[in-house]
Amino acid sequence: AQKVTQAQTEISVVEKEDVTLDCVYETRDTTYYLFWYKQPPSGELVFLIRRNSFDEQNEISGRYSWNFQKSTSSFNFTITASQVVDSAVYFCALSEAEPQGAQKLVFGQGTRLTINP
Amino acid sequence: ETGVTQTPRHLVMGMTNKKSLKCEQHLGHNAMYWYKQSAKKPLELMFVYSLEERVENNSVPSRFSPECPNSSHLFLHLHTLQPEDSALYLCASSQVPSGSTDTQYFGPGTRLTVL
After folding, report:
1. Are B89 and B36 in contact (CB under 8 A)?
2. Distances from the Cα of A71 to the Cα of A25, A68, A74, A112, B91, angstroms
3. Is B108 in contact with A43 (Cβ distance < 8 A)?
4. A44: distance to nearest CA of chain B, Å?
5. What angle do CA A49, B8, B87 make, to 5 degrees?
6. Are B31 and A33 in contact (CB < 8 Å)?
7. Mutation test of the interface with chain A: which of B4, B9, B25, B43, choosing the one with the most A Cβ atoms within 10 A?
8. Concatenated DSSP letters for A36-91?
9. Chain centroid to CA B42: how far?
10. How high is the pLDDT of residue A55?
């Protein structure tokens, strides 16, 4: 069965600090997909990144970076030089390959990130 | 309107009421999803519609009844709910099949309170 674990329930840092959100997953499939979503106070889940299991290259997008390591089943998310607007709940999610149909996302519990000015 | 919209944004209802949540996607997608987000549980997938056919029903109680009249609209009909059904209900859409996995895009949710 699939499972996603975000061990950090809440993180609080001061603005401009770097912060890493951890995500560990479990799956029996060799083909799967990992996602990060951001949920600001407004409630909407905002898509941040998708990574497939065959692509272990790390990715950087502005102040955001992701470290995917299959050896440890982890897909960690780092925010560099954090800003108050980064305050939100962040979710890591996993789906197994569904080539012909709709995917079924399994979410972690989420990490509430608070950036203090 | 762009993206995925949901109405109403907030809903308070009694246990004997009947109400409906509405979701509309403006992304040209052909799959739609209902999720439940409660305070003490991770996001839970409730229903999946792909090409207007229900393909997933995750042991959801019958007091929740989904309807997908076309690929752009999704409803969740509610009746005789319980207080523990109070939660944020999120709708999402995606495009299938896509050769590789699709990405789900979410609406802002409906905050439901059952008294």
Report:
1. yes
2. 11, 9, 8, 26, 34
3. yes
4. 4
5. 65
6. no
7. B43
8. EEEE-TT---EEEEEEETT----EEETTEEEEEEGGGTEEEEEESS--GGG-EEEE
9. 15
10. 86
CA distance B60 to B66: 10
pLDDT band at B98 (very low <50, low <70, confident <90, very high): low
How far apart are alpha carbons B115 and B108 in whole angstroms? 22
Reading the block at residue B103, the tokens are 């990405």
State the Cα–Cα distance between residues A81 and B79, nearest whole angstrom. Answer: 48
pLDDT tens for residues B24-75?
A: 999 999 999 999 999 878 899 999 998 777 777 778 999 999 999 999 999 9
Please tell me the predicted confidence (pLDDT) of residue B51. Answer: 77
